[in-house]
Amino acid sequence: MSALAHIPLGQRIPASIHGVSCSLPTMRAVIGYETKDPGVVLHMHGGYPRFVQHPYLRRAAEHAADALGLKDHQIWLTSSLRAAEALRAWLAPAPARVITHEHLGGVAFPADPDTFARAKTFLQHTGTLLSSREAEDYLWRAGLLAGRQEEEVFDGYAPARVKGVVARAFGADPAGDVFLTNSGMNAVHAAFSAADAVQRARGRTRWVQLGWLYLDTIAILQKFTREPARDYHFQSDVFDLRALERLFAEHGGEIAGVITEVPTNPLIQTPDLAAVCALCRAHGAVFIVDPTIASPLNIDVLPHADLAANSLTKFAACEGDVIAGAVVVNPASPWAETFRREVPGRLEPLYSRDLGRLAEQISGYAPLIEKINRSTPAVVEFLEKHPRVREVYWSLHPGSRDNYLKLARAPDAVGGMVSFTIDGPLDGFYDRVRLPKGASFGMNNSLISPFIYLAHYDLVTSESGRETLRRAGLPADLLRLSVGAEPVDEIIAALAEALG
């Protein structure tokens, strides 16, 4: 896919029925997507699978409803029966029930827009939707598809292949400390759930969010802590260790754990990970770290965490057509044995075809990281020198540089994420830039998006929301660029043309 071509509205990125991103080529399209404008939605052939229900899931749910005599019901299909039961409990007291049909499971309820939306939100946060490939197989078996997506899969034992690569990336034991799951979000949810259950038994219920994190990680802490108004703490400044120390001094015996990303999304900030870990250990709190933005091939986070949650959709599934994740246990953690027991039972299964597809393309993981590590500094240098660019955030931003380099596996292991702001109208730049535009990151192709509009449209469009963003240091017009494997001069040329 050329970096020099505009991609039509709604086309999948990549152009596979299982592609995880979808082109939103203009700000009008972005806003139309967020506001459910029929003129935009009509052209959407896909979208990030946790946010946009895949057409195969819709067809499979409709077919299952007909087969079960539930035509007046709506059905959400889940990645397991356990996930279906969790969804049913979440929807209570709405009249929902767990259903099974031809090896699929899910939850059915009388048609109701509010219940449907609540179910979608739960599945989005927990990463427990049915895989599009499993839905494809169901439709194929039912005779509703003439065939399945033709794609290369690994010719061997896929679990060992994937676990081995992930284990080497983290420096972990593939047999005992690496656990695969169906999505990066489910990895985060499972890590949190396991730690929360262990800590609740000790009377600890408070959780700390360190830095502005990905929206669904924030939602897990805001919705799944015991009493969110009391138990959810947000510290926006990842560098303020003194504030964290004061919080532990005041509530140390009640704090269950701390969650952060390294670097954070989308400001690409890196806390002093070793210091935060030492503080957690001193007070008996669990420390969960998500290194997805930079990838564990670039940074060594496991020695400074109890659990690592990683989206394998990013970089490992470098072609951009697999949703997967992993939880990795630090064997030196005082909680290691406990988490080896607790985590597996909270993870959702990675469907066999997704696993085979991931195992096939994971050989491109390290080459992609090497390529973007070479390209990113050149992109940053161009942006920092351009008169229209106000601020550039990346792993070696002066505010984070020292903390990041303490973790970096090499001085040039910088990762591929760059966020920046510009002078002038956002739409003037975004509409012109000839790069793939859509959600997600960590593919062979670059991806750019007006991240705050896509992730936090509710905040962008209200004065109170904009104030929340300002307090967190998040510009509403922030652009997030995931540098891909295209020739770096093409990426820079596309940016230069759009900036004028």
Automatic annotation (TrEMBL):
Task: Please indicate if the UniProt record lists Lyase as a keyword.
Answer: yes
What molecular function does GO assign, one term?
cystathionine gamma-synthase activity
What Pfam families has UniProt attached to this entry? Answer: Cys_Met_Meta_PP
Q: List, separated by semicolons, the cofactors it needs.
A: pyridoxal 5'-phosphate
Q: Which Gene3D superfamilies match?
A: Aspartate Aminotransferase, domain 1, Type I PLP-dependent aspartate aminotransferase-like (Major domain)
- Give UniProt keywords alphabetically: Lyase, Pyridoxal phosphate
Q: Which GO terms describe its biological process?
A: transsulfuration
Q: Which InterPro entries match?
A: Cys/Met-Metab_PyrdxlP-dep_enz (IPR000277), PyrdxlP-dep_Trfase (IPR015424), PyrdxlP-dep_Trfase_major (IPR015421), PyrdxlP-dep_Trfase_small (IPR015422), Trans-sulfuration_enzymes (IPR051750)
Q: Which PANTHER family match?
A: CYSTATHIONINE GAMMA-SYNTHASE-RELATED, PTHR42699
Q: Which family does it belong to?
A: Belongs to the trans-sulfuration enzymes family.
Mind telling me what this protein is named?
Answer: Cystathionine beta-lyase/cystathionine gamma-synthase
Q: Name the source organism.
A: Termitidicoccus mucosus
